[in-house]
Amino acid sequence: MPKLGHTLFLRFYTIAKATLYNNQGFRKRIETLRQQQSQTPTSKQIKLEMTDNNKDIIIESLKRRIRKVEEENKQLRNQLKVAYADVYQRI
Q: Entry's InterPro entries (predicted)?
């Protein structure tokens, strides 16, 4: 949503910019709408929050995956030790 201002109002109403600045009714309405708009989060802010949440989820997922791979690696090393011991005993 574009930022509310005098220029935006000029697009919708066929009045001079000076009228918007000089007319207190228009000016107060614009300021009220600006205030309301500043209190609502923008789509960019929402996307940023979602991105941060997604980053946290991805980090946790990768940590679990690393733990799983490390455990599998440990088991494979132990199996390799046993296999080497069997080969050594056969010699």
A: TnpC-like
Q: Whole-model pTM?
A: 0.44
Q: Which domain holds residue 62?
A: 43-91
Distance of alpha carbon 32 from alpha carbon 40, whole angstroms: 13
Residue 64 has pLDDT above 80, yes or no: yes
16 three-state secondary structure: coil
pLDDT tens digit sequence for 10-39: 666 667 777 777 888 878 887 888 787 777
Contact 30, 4 (CB under 8 A): yes
Convert 15-44 to b/e letters by CB count within 10 Å (16 or more is b): eeeeebeeeeebeeebeeeeeeeeeeeeee
Pull the structure tokens for residue 91.
Answer: 């010699």
The predicted structure's pLDDT at residue 80: 95
Same domain (yes/no): 64, 84? yes
